[in-house]
UniProtKB/TrEMBL annotation:
Residues 19-65 form the FHA domain. It comes from Thermomonospora umbrina. This is FHA domain-containing protein. SUPFAM superfamilies: SMAD/FHA domain. It comes from the Bacteria. InterPro entries: FHA_dom, SMAD_FHA_dom_sf. Keywords: Phosphoprotein.
Length: 231
């Protein structure tokens, strides 16, 4: 783990070990200092647990945010006083509220996760893919272009417009009507997104593009490596 305020500060934790962070004080030292008057003297702690970790928020008023820089917008909120919140991200950035905004106080790098081996020797009908997408198809490039801002910056709220997608995919021979067709095809046939009832007044194009981004990133249908497919 290293501090966002001092990248040279690296603390290594074995499973079961814990460090504290905050503004600190002579009578209340901390392991990782975040020098800002809006940060509590004892702001919280990080506890290492095998291949994940837990974050405790000791503040009475501030909510902390843990972002996954690799996960297309994934984050965990830790409310004031919450103890031992499990964080599943291998790499995570802890954001603390400070005077004038937020700061990436420190980064946590957990051990690589363990995955189960697929069962062998099982007979019967093969399991179908819930979302069958062809990475070589133009509709998939449209989906990647939609997701690109969020993949590059998880905190981005940008939803690319059709003209912006056309510009990003310049040279592929797409037209505005073709991009609209691919978006509608993705929404109706591939990801089958549905308009939320509370968004009934929102324009079709707006909610469709937003819903496609949300589903594609939430279920890892579009990932960082797919950005290389863009021209």
């Amino acid at each position: 783990m290293h501090s966002g305020r001092d990248a040279s500060t690296i603390l290594r934790l074995a499973p079961g070990e814990e460090i504290t962070f905050g503004r600190g004080a002579p009578e209340q030292p901390v392991d990782l200092r975040v020098d800002d008057p809006a940060v509590s003297r004892m702001a919280g702690s990080v506890h290492a647990v095998e291949d994940y970790w837990r974050l405790s928020n000791r503040s009475r008023t501030a909510t902390y945010v843990v972002e996954n820089p690799e996960g297309g917008g994934e984050f965990v909120k830790v409310p004031p006083g919450r103890v031992g919140t499990p964080v599943p991200f291998e790499i995570a950035q802890v954001l603390l509220p400070v005077e004038g905004g937020w700061t990436k106080a420190f980064t946590v790098m957990a051990p690589e996760h363990t995955f189960a081996v697929s069962a062998l020797g099982v007979t019967g009908e093969p399991t179908r893919l819930a979302h069958s997408l062809d990475p070589t198809a133009k509709y998939f490039l449209v989906l990647v272009a939609l997701c690109e801002p969020r993949l590059r910056d998880p905190s981005s709220a940008v939803i690319p417009s059709v003209p912006q997608i056309l510009s990003r995919l310049d040279g592929l021979g797409l037209t505005r009507s073709a991009v609209n067709f691919h978006i509608d095809y993705l929404a109706r046939e591939k990801l089958r997104v549905k308009q939320p009832s509370h968004d009934a007044s929102q324009g079709k194009a707006d909610w469709q593009r937003g819903a496609l981004i949300s589903v594609a990133l939430r279920f890892d249908l579009v990932r960082d490596e797919h950005l290389a497919l863009l021209p």
